[in-house]
Design brief:
The protein contains 6 helices and 4 strands. By secondary structure, the protein is of the alpha+beta class.
Length: 149
């Protein structure tokens, strides 16, 4: 996987990898969460999004995606040249380590939407399978989409 995940599959795989790593690090934790930001193109324009994966202590999985927003051309060009979005944001906005602070969403909205605000709905939606244990939510491995687990 690249430093900057591109597309749903790479981004979701990154979130799943992070969640499973957290799960293996603390297997007795009720939940482990992985969040991965990525970009994808629609009609020639670049959009940013994030995927969230939640793994329960018994190995069940829930996933969800954040909303998407248009990436400015100045940032998209740098990403297309191989730069990670956070580094591209730093260069364009004259910042340092913004991805660990307010991130692209905070920079672009003047902090009207914080990183926590942006991720919270996706985290909540990734918990849907755990709030509804009487329903079936098959986990699909993005690298083998035809084989639900």
């Amino acid at each position: 996987m690249s430093d900057q995940p591109v597309g749903i599959e790479e981004t979701l795989t990154g979130a799943l990898n992070r969640a499973w790593q957290a799960h293996y690090a603390v297997p007795q934790a009720p939940f482990a969460v992985g969040i991965e930001g990525g970009v994808e193109r629609h009609n020639g324009q670049m959009y940013a999004m994030a995927w969230v994966a939640v793994v329960s202590e018994d190995g069940r999985v829930g996933t969800a995606c954040s909303g998407q927003f248009l990436v400015p051309l100045e940032v998209a060009r740098l990403i297309d040249q191989g730069m990670e979005m956070g580094d591209a944001d730093d260069q364009v906005f004259g910042r340092s380590n913004s991805k660990q602070q307010n991130g692209a969403i905070g920079l672009l909205t003047g902090d009207a939407i914080t990183r926590a605000d942006y991720y919270a709905p996706a985290v909540t939606m990734a918990l849907i399978p755990f709030r509804n244990p009487n329903l079936t939510f098959p986990y699909v491995n993005p690298s083998q989409p035809d084989e639900p687990v």
